[in-house]
Amino acid sequence: MIEILEKLGEVTVLAYVVSSMLVTGMSQRLGDVLAPLKEPRSVIVALSLNFVAAPLLAILLSRTIPLQPAHATGLLLLGAAAGAPFIPKLADVARGNLPYSVAIMLLLMVGSIVFVPVVLPFIVLGVSPDPVRIAEPLIFSMLFPLAIGFALNARLGRVNNILLPILRKLSNLTFLLLLLLLVGLNLQALYETLGSYAIGTYVLFVVAMVLLGYAVGGMDSRKRTVLALASGQRNISVALVVSVESLDDPAVVIMLLVGAVAGLVVLLGVARLLRADE
To answer: Residue 218: what are its φ and ψ, rounded to 5°?
Structure first.
């Protein structure tokens, strides 16, 4: 039964990511998404937060809090990987600037493909990530569906209007199912980490990154909210690829899964709080 649920979880992740990327592309104009990437301050701040501040914070926490070595490694992996597919969903929950959320997601995803293989070996001993292995799932499950969505939006307006509500419902349903499966399948892992500092440390990391992102996010409240949430939401997929490929340590994978559950739950709550302040 567990194996069936795990397979269902894998299918659900893929279904959610692909459908959400299609919805994102079909509901946004490409020009609106690319516009924020032409603002040097916005790009520099986002890259600095996610590829300077986040890794440094992960290193600081891993050295000051008595984490198990595998948990510390998992935290460092998460600190280095950004550009998660959940960013537009969090922005939607918080009623943030959706085109900006897609721009930030793309920027950080490309940044992770470059940053993780180059810098991570200096942060985590024994890690030598393959950039191709990191890029493949991001390209095929995120970039391709997003590009198809943009094409449908630009070329097939009437078809786009028919498909978009259906795909949006599918995306919402798979997201809810994914949340249930993430929590249900990882209850044992969550329980096993209760005696350690793993959950508390990762929640502290997420909250600190959200606060930092909010503090430097500029005057536009809807963009500031998106940057804050994007800085807290790490790219679990990239971290898992690196862990499986280079480390082969189940305890590190457990930390990553715990991070996926705890981080997403915390950020959904933060997104609703930020929405309430609008």
So the answer is: 90, -175
Q: Give 197-224 pLDDT, tens digit per residue.
A: 888 999 999 999 999 999 998 889 999 9
Interval 95-110 mean pLDDT: 93
Could you tell me if residue 128 is left (phi over 0), alpha (psi between -120 and 50 degrees) or otherwise beta?
beta
CA angle 203, 205, 208 (to 5 degrees): 105
Q: What pTM did the predictor assign?
A: 0.85
Q: Please check the confidence at residue 276 and state whether its pLDDT lies above 60.
A: no
Query: Residue 197 has what pLDDT?
Result: 86
Q: How many independent structural domains does the chain possess? A: 1
The answer to whether 16 touches 174, Cβ cutoff 8 Å, is yes
The CATH number of the domain holding residue 263 is 1.20.1530.20
The amino acid sitting at 121 is P
- Find the domain containing 213 and state its range: 2-276
